[in-house]
Design brief:
mainly alpha, 0% strand, single chain
Amino acid sequence: MAGQKAYDFKQGATLVGLAVLVCAANWLSVYYLKYPFLYCWGTPVVWPVYLAFGNILNVVAICVFAYQAFRYNIKGMIAAAVAVVLVMGIPIYAVTLFKLGGSCGV
């Protein structure tokens, strides 16, 4: 596209650095205060989105799996099966990564 500049790796590095900083702050918050702010503040926002789109993503991945099975494409079948498992496991991964044994105070 005309006028669009190339991807700047400094921007990506800044986002990764910011994510590491926020996760470190969350870990310190849990370590000292037993309050996982990422989990407590993010759950009310993310949970309805997951409930709305998680099932849709699973159905799409299952359809891709069936299509790849019809084409006898083993790599595509494995990728679709991994996608189904990952989408189903998102809540478990989120609790493990962000709650870190803390409590929201309820």
